[in-house]
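Usage

Read records sequentially. Each one opens with the input sequence:
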Amino acid sequence: MASVVSSNEHSGSSDNHCNPFPAATKDHHQPLPRHPEDPAAALANSRHEFGEHGGVNMSIEASATFTVMEPETMRRMFTGELGPDRDFFFYSRHFNPTVLNLGRLMASLEGTEAAYCTASGMSAVSSVLLQLCSAGGHVVASRTLYGGTHTLLTHFLPRTCNITTSFVDIRDHEALCRMAHDKGITAVVDNTFAPMFVSPARLGADIVVHSMSKFISGAADLIAVKKRLSRVDGIETESWPGTICHDVLIGYLAPSGAVCGPESFVNSLMDTRDGSLMLLGPTMNPKVAFELAGRLPHLGLRMKEHCNRALVYATRMKKLGLKVIYPGLEDHPDHATLKSMAIKEYGYGGLLCVDMETEERANRLMKLLQNCSQFGLVAVSLGYYDTLMSCSGSSTSSELSKEEKEQSGISPGLIRMSIGFNGTLEQKWSQFEMALSRMQDSTKV
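and closes with the structure output:
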């Protein structure tokens, strides 16, 4: 979980669009009661969208544009008199019914008034920052941001918008939010790593962003189907009996993001005159929204197992003498802080780090874990059902300078593990021990 606070705010409300997120008006700079509702319960209590013909699943609205019965209606939609709250849509870059429903579910998950979903996590982050900050604005951000966000703040925004950033150590998110609100500054939290077990908005954050292709998706971004195709007169068709067939994988890459926050801010993102989502157009595919909406109901079950195994493995790895970094361990410097913030039923997160000190030793262990014992896969990203491993300094945080990596606690041999839940816990642990034993044996020769 990483935080950004931004000043020089220029857009937090929008008056020219109807509100598709009806909710009670509240003071967004006042934190809600601590953990008033389990996110899983909030999801279960959210509005269920049925399919067009009564199906238990919502329909996919794949249209880019929408018709109206009366020409005068078009003018009323563009002035904001009519909108998605009354089932009036004009173009899917603005609001799409399927994506809008996923946004309502994300708002329930995070305990915010509203949410809308985007084509990627980075599009969510960049759209929020561009909506909040004008040219010459300033951002105060955590040193431990995702590498892509760090690069956006250190290189892209200064070059294109003269928006500058100060990086600081942020450990107490509630104190950060209080401090920001005292100064009239918006607090933004990236909760990609901590869905379900930490609810930043319930702890005072104004805006919460997600990369939904991680834990929320749980499927490593690719949704695919296999079809049997045949070639007849040079044209590929679905196979018929007696034809020569071959298998192909047909699918779509599905990076996805979300912005959760006050209804006024989410609506401002869609303003036809200066909304960053509307004008920059990082539109989520409604087919992706449909898939993600079907995965949210079991996110809580998945997160509990991710977190449980991460704690068990971290505890056992430490007993083996490895240098383990995991906030669920009592000797972690931020254990007490996270314990006070987290919803205890879910644990302390599904990611841990093992510091092998050098990149060579880290790569050797990961190679054995993947190719010899099948403990996990060497890959970036996180939240997959199998364990994913990568050397952060040479992959997802490679954009950082040597000094920035040191300040963030990223050593050359730091292995980030996103702990999966496939197989049994003991089966996967024995695979880890096997690989570690082989590595230790090879160093003795």
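Summary fields computed downstream for this record:
- Residues 11-17, 23-35, 222-251 have pLDDT under 50 and may be disordered.
- The chain has three domains: 2-217+254-298, 218-249, 299-444.
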